[in-house]
TrEMBL record:
GO BP terms in the entry: isopentenyl diphosphate biosynthetic process, methylerythritol 4-phosphate pathway involved in terpenoid biosynthetic process
Gene Ontology molecular function terms on file: 1-deoxy-D-xylulose-5-phosphate reductoisomerase activity; isomerase activity; manganese ion binding; NADPH binding
Organism in which the protein naturally occurs: Acinetobacter cumulans
Binding site for NADPH: 11-14, 125, 127, 215
HAMAP family with a match to the protein in the record: DXP_reductoisom
Keywords: Isomerase, Isoprene biosynthesis, Magnesium, Manganese, Metal-binding, NADP, Oxidoreductase
UniProt domain 1-deoxy-D-xylulose 5-phosphate reductoisomerase C-terminal: residue ranges: 147-239
Lineage summary: Bacteria, Pseudomonadati, Pseudomonadota, Gammaproteobacteria, Moraxellales
Gene3D superfamilies: 1.10.1740.10, NAD(P)-binding Rossmann-like Domain
Binding-site residues, 1-deoxy-D-xylulose 5-phosphate: 126, 152-153, 186, 209, 222, 227-228, 231
Name of the featured protein: 1-deoxy-D-xylulose 5-phosphate reductoisomerase
Domain DXP reductoisomerase C-terminal: 271-387
Amino acid sequence: MSQSVCILGATGSIGQSTLKILAQHSQEYSVFAVTAQSRLAELVEICKQYRPRFAVVPSSKVDELRQLLVAEQLADIEILADEAGLIAVASHSDVDVVMAAIVGAAGLLPTLAAVKAGKRVLLANKEALVMSGDIMMQAALDHHATLLPVDSEHNAIFQCLPQNYFQAERNGQPKLGVSNILLTASGGPFLNHSLEQLHSVTPAQACKHPNWSMGQKISVDSATLMNKGLELIEACHLFSIEEHFVTVVVHPQSIIHSMVQYVDGSTLAQMGNPDMCTPIAHALAWPERIQTHVPALNVFTHSQLNFVEPDTTRFPALQLARQAMKVGGTTPAILNAANEIAVDAFLKQKIGFMQIPAIVEQTLNQLAHQAANNLDVILQADAEARAIAQQLVTNKGS
Ligand code: NAD
Ligand code: MG
């Protein structure tokens, strides 16, 4: 029987890579629902090729989508709207697999709905886990969801961990002989920029990643190293370890996607060409393996692999995230919300590049953290942090 897949964020970079793999394995997988916030023409193209049962867009775009679908003789595709529509398709009883590939906090409730419905959830939307942490991990346990990491580093770590790692107790300590995680970072497009140069980089430069082709927000996060900070928090939750068991390693070639160290002196690494189709296919088929178009790594063309420590003076975001994880509670949600506002402002050229971590830090300083024992507290912290960060953007921009 073929598996029915819901793709949250189908028009994005991860969504498109997912669709590419599904096209290659159309006997095994069918597309049940696709969602998009914008780019309706692309969504209609996806509908034409994959014939989903549902398409979800903001309510302001429903009429336009309906007209476009009718024009393509696709009127049988049901259109749902807004967050309620996203939640409905993510938790639909006919869905087996949910690809969580919406960017940012907007993906939290739909992703959590998929987890609570006990789905196989392929997690690309790291911000959702950064915000909700223990709540999402506990929901996965309670509802027997299979939460599989798509983020290339976490997927690599998952592949290097012992198979029964996830059956062991979740107590913040590495287990089954694991001693440490080496989370690799490419260092982004500004790895060798001076602090002075960093002050004047443009959004276009920030979005031009040396190794990966990604959406705008994660590209800027990669340039500030906030992406690695969010990933550090993501790793702590996924693998149930305290932050000091995660070491960030800058590895500019992006060939090793992360490593796991063991008490006997072993270090296991997962390697491959930098293409998100590999971790997506891994999460989709796990514990089996399916083919992708990604060519096998030719080690002879990669004669040098380098590893350096991150520079936290030029890239303070990493330390802010590590500190947020240490403090815990609503702090990671505050960090994430302030970052989303600051990145958006940078992309709109309202603030400079180095103001991104500055705004995140000031927001963290202005907002007291609380225990994050329920979702409402987290959503409220998210809203308050957005308001503060927005105010800081307005002040800086003037
Ligand atoms: P993207 O910007 O290319 O795509 C985002 C998708 O989410 C689009 O389909 C968009 O329409 C939808 N979306 C945006 N805002 C929305 C909203 N408010 N409500 C509903 N839908 C909305 O982003 P991407 O690069 O594909 O990244 C998606 C997620 O995957 C992010 O969380 C990112 O951190 C993570 N991720 C991406 C990569 C990568 O290589 N692109 C790698 C690892 C993790
Ligand atoms: Mg990553």
